[in-house]
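Input record, target 12 of the design panel.
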């Protein structure tokens, strides 16, 4: 019972953060709300016993892409002062579309013939993924690392300034 309450709490906070992304007029606040949304999605993955996907969600999206986005926002001159204008242009059609989609989904949830099965025991997935990377898929894993290293070296070479004599 406590797990269900915690799941609904995390899902509700994720939805509130997603609404903050969609409805915020300040791009900095929208980026921070996106962080809450991505962390909430990682929490939902953890409840679904997808521990590897949850950790990758936090590392890649929150730790990488969102931090890069925040750096770009913070380093752009006076972007935090910019407010989104013309927000009332598509308000009515978007509201009608959201209401129609919500009604269709609610009808499907209520009228659906749901099959329930006992919940299997959640087992960690990271051990099996690591074992597969280091046994069956070792060659593609190493080739991907060489390709990524080559791309990183190429990016450094292309981005450095040439010293002129």
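The sequence produced for target 12 reads:
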């Amino acid at each position: 019972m406590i797990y269900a309450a915690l799941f609904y709490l995390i899902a509700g906070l994720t939805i509130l953060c997603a609404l903050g992304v969609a409805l915020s007029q300040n791009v900095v606040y929208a980026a921070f709300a996106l962080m809450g949304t991505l962390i909430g999605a990682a929490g939902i993955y953890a409840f679904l016993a997808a521990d590897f996907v949850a950790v990758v969600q936090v590392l890649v999206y929150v730790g990488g892409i969102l931090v890069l986005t925040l750096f770009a926002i913070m380093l752009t001159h006076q972007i935090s002062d910019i407010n989104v204008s013309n927000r009332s242009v598509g308000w009515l059609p978007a509201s009608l579309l959201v209401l129609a989609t919500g009604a269709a989904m609610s009808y499907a949830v209520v009228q659906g013939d749901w099959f329930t099965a006992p919940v299997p025991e959640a087992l960690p997935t990271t051990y099996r993924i690591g074992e597969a990377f280091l046994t069956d898929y070792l060659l593609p894993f190493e080739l991907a690392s060489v390709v990524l290293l080559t791309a990183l070296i190429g990016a450094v070479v292309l981005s450095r300034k040439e010293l002129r004599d």
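The radius of gyration is 22 Å.
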